[in-house]
Amino acid sequence: MIKKKRRQLAIGAGLAFGALGTFVLTRFKRDRKDIVTRLESNSQIVETVNGRIEYTIIGTGVPVLISHGTLGGYDQGLGIAKLFLDEGFQLIVVSRAGYLRSSLETGQTPTQQADSYAQLLDKLGISQAGMIGVSGGGPSALQFVMRYPERCLGLVLMSAITIAPPPLPVIMKAIIRAQAVTLRFDFLWWLLFKLNLQGLMKMNGVDQALGYQVNQDAEKMAIIRELYQPLVTSSLRIAGVQNDDKQITNLQQYPTGEIAVPILVIHSPTDPLVSIDQARWIAEVAQNSSLIEIKDGGHICFVVRKEQIIPRINDFFNTNMSMFEVDLSQSDLSRR
Length: 336
Hints:
This protein is α/β, with parallel strands linked by helices. Helices cover about 50% and strands about 15% of the residues. It is built from 13 helices and eight strands.
């Protein structure tokens, strides 16, 4: 009798777990399908001499191009762009080379990516624009400023990579290799995104107390979700991630002392992914640069402490804009 009851309980538990597994898998497939549909319907494609560039545009005002971070895409860039929607900027958000529908050929090096930005602006009829480089989007943003100084209204670097990091410990190399494998399995990243968003924030340098505080701010959390949601479709970004890893490992120290374009650097010493030393280096060697150190917020300090940061960026671009002749009427953006 006892064995029979145990058997029944085991069968019941198995059926319950099976039903739960089916429900979770169905939910994942539905979520992923919805996300992919939105990704393909909310962006545009432009063909350049080097390949296909995916982009989208939001806001009105002075053009500002956003170079997103590693494991991003134009969708991550949109989350960043929404920080500036009320500031009088027209945000041009790209998928960098190898991300989503952008061809890898448009940017296998930061130099090539910078050229692809210029080609996109040409297609849009934009002569000058501001530039924002975030995390792994920093090297190509720097190259854009170096190669096209007459076209850049100013550069903002947020938690950005600017020089090659020091060699990683063996354990970190193993973790990165394991992560590269898991990128092919969207389901694992979907679970992480759905079940442990606070854990993702903590991994990015937001401590538990601050994470709880931020969690009470619906606007900030909406942006943070947009920054991390690309994980759910990580398999669509593998080429871009692998390219970024190769670029960053082989990154040369740029002659940034020759840059005359104004640069605003924003970083936090609590950033576990990109050392504050990178921000301090670029702020020290670039001719016309300034550094804002945010005490906490880690790699996403620009969202966590947006009240401190966004007004400074707004002033930075508006001040620099006055030194250029920006004719918005000549831009295709003004007619979109």
